[in-house]
Amino acid sequence: MSEQLLSADIALIQRIIPHRYPFLLVDKVVDIDGIKSGRGIKNVTMNEPHFQGHFPGKPIMPGVTIIEAMAQTAAIMVGTALDMADKNMLVYFMAIDKAKFRRMVVPGDVLEMNVTTTRGKPGGKVWKFSGVATVDGEMAAEAEFTAMMDLGQE
Fold first, then answer.
1. Cα angle 114, 67, 131; round to 5
2. Residues 10-53 pLDDT 10s
3. How far apart are CA 10 and CA 15, in angstroms?
4. Rounded to an integer, what distance in angstroms lies between the CA atom of residue 24 and that of residue 44?
5. Which residues contact 153 (CB under 8 A, 6 or more apart)?
6. Annotated catalytic sites, by residue?
7. 103, CA 20 to 30 Å: which among 69, 74, 112, 113?
8. Where are the domains of the chain?
9. What would the 3-class secondary structure string for 30-45 be?
10. Per-residue pLDDT tens for 70-123?
């Protein structure tokens, strides 16, 4: 394993996960503590395509995209910790549990996704995470989710 990085910028993110516009929902991941935890940052802007229809005149980030942003944060955290850049890692949802939404996320907000690994180890395929998304320290959403990580074994 290479030296642990503490953050992933957009260039590294695109080398770890395959998501691209309009479905890349994380701008950077900071405070990466190995495979244990990390904090994703998303700058929410009006030019995102879901705001055209959700909702006209009152743009609100869909809850499912907030959960997706938490999942992408988890994949980037693990991918950074395990040096998975350029290894074609794919991640698939297996379950989403205990999802709750507490605050609307709107253009201009900075969404922070704090993600913690609750089950998973290097080389393992099934990982479980707990995530809390906040705006200005106020909880916007929380969920537990399970994912299968195809770690691109060559």
1. 30
2. 999 999 999 999 999 999 999 999 999 999 999 999 999 999 99
3. 9
4. 12
5. none
6. 54
7. 74
8. 6-150
9. EEEECCCEEEEEEECC
10. 999 999 999 999 999 999 999 999 999 999 999 999 999 999 999 999 999 998
